[in-house]
Amino acid sequence: MSETSPNTLQYRVDGPEDAPILVLGPSLGTTWHMWDRQIAELSERWRVIRYDLPGHGGAPAYPASSVGDLAERLLATLDQLGVQRFGYAGCSVGGAVGIELALRHPQRVATLALVAASPRFGTADEFRQRGVVVRTNGLDPIARSAPERWFTPAFAAAQPAIVEWAVQMVRTTDPGCYIAACEALAAFDVRAGLGRIQVPTLVVVGSEDQVTGPAEARTLVAGIPDARLALVPGASHLAPVEQPAAVTDLLAHHFATAWHDTLAAIPAPSAPVTSAPVAPVAEIAPAAATEQPQATGPGRADPYQAGMKVRREVLGDAHVDDVLADGDDFTGDFQELITRFAWGEVWTRDGLDRRMRSCVTLTALVAGGHLEELAPHTRAALRNGLTPSEIREILIHTAVYCGVPAANSAFRVAQAVIQEETTPRA
C-alpha cells in the first residue's frame, strides 16, 4: 500500500508479475471497476494496471488541469512501479489519455486501443456548460442522466442494478475534479496530431454510441497511420460494460497480435495491489500541431493568437464564431483590435485570475449600462467559476455604486442567462 500524491494516480494491479503490462483507463465519471468484466481473461496473459481519475472512486481530489496533466500523472505512477513500456486501452477520456501518451512519449507505448474515444470530444462550449451545471447543482443531474449517455435503452431496462451502479458512481465523484475534467476535455483537440501516432491502434466504438459514435471513430482511423476500426453491435458509450465479451475478445486479440517487444513487468506480488485502501462504490454485478505566434517587434510575440484562445475559452466558441461571422470590411479591424488588445494584452495578464476579471467586467458593464454585453459576460462569469449566488452579490453591490435602475436591468439579463446555463441539457 502507498499513499497517492498530487502527481500520481490511484491504481490497482491484477495478473502475473512476470507478464507484459497492460494499462486500462476509465471514462469520465467512472472508476476502474468499469473494466471488472475484462479482468478475468486479460489478467491471464497480462499484468493489468487500472487507475482512477482524480476524485473518482475515492481517489484523492487533486484536480487535473488538462488531459496532458492526466497523462503525465499516469506516467509518474508507472515510473514508480518500474514500468517502462506497456500496452494501453482507454475508454472516452481514458482514450484521450492514451492518445496524449502516444504523442508525448511514443517510446513508452507499445500498442494502443481507443474505446469510445475521439480526437475532440463534442465542443468546448458543451463541456464548459456541463461544468457550470455541476458547479451550480452538484453532480446529481449528471448522475441521473448518465445511463442515457452510457447505455442503450434495452440494456438499461434489462439491467437496473448496473444502471444504479452507474448513477452512484457519478454521484460519489468529487465535483471539483469532475469540473476540472470537463475543462480538460473542452481544451482537448488532437486532430492535427493524429498522424504522429506510430503504434498499432485499435479503435473500438459501440454502434449505438451517441456521445462519441462511429463518425468520431472513423476520424481516428483515418488520422492514425496504423489503425483499424471495430464496431460493437448493441453497445452505447460504455461498451466494456454493456458488451463485455465482445470488447474483451477485441482487446485480447489486438494486444496479442500487435505486441512487438517483450515489455518490462513490475516487481510486485501476484496478488492484486492497490495504491491506497479504497472502499469502492460498487463492483459491476454480473449480467443475466500548435501554430507559433508571429513577432511584432524585437523579442515580443503578437498577442493575437493568445487573445483569440482566451476569448474563445471565456466567451465560448459559439459566441465568438457568431461575432466573427457577422464581421465585414467595416468591423473586421475592430474585432482584430479587441482580440489583440482586450483579450491578448489584458485578459492574459497574471495579476488577476479569470474569476476576478469577470467580477470587474460585470461591474463595469452595469456601470456603463452596456446590457447587450452583459449576457455573454454573465455566461463567461459562470464558466470562469463564479456561482449564481456570487453573481447575485455582485449585482446587489452595483445597485449601491452604479444605481438601482442599472442593477435592476442587469438582474433581468443575468437571471435569464443563469437559468439557461444552469439547466441540464438533454
Structural overview:
Mean pLDDT is 89; it is low at 260-270, 277-281 and 288-295. The protein is 50% helix and 11% strand. Strand 4, helix 3 (93-104) and strand 5 (109-115) form a beta-alpha-beta unit. The chain is built from 18 helices and ten strands. It is of the alpha/beta class. The strands form two sheets. An eight-stranded mixed β-sheet has the order 7-6-5-4-2-3-1-8, with helices on both faces.
Properties at a glance:
single chain, 426 residues, alpha/beta, 8-stranded mixed beta sheet, two-stranded antiparallel ribbon
| Biggest pleated sheet | 8 strands, mixed
Percentage of β-strand residues? 5-15%
By helix and strand content, what is the structural category?
alpha/beta
Please trace the helix and strand order, writing H or E for each element.
EEHEHEHEHHHHHEHEHHEEEHHHHHHH
Average pLDDT reading: 89
Low-confidence stretches: 260-270, 277-281, 288-295
Shape: globular
Count of individual helical segments: 18
Radius of gyration: 23 Å
* Strands, total number: 10
Strand order of the largest sheet: 7-6-5-4-2-3-1-8
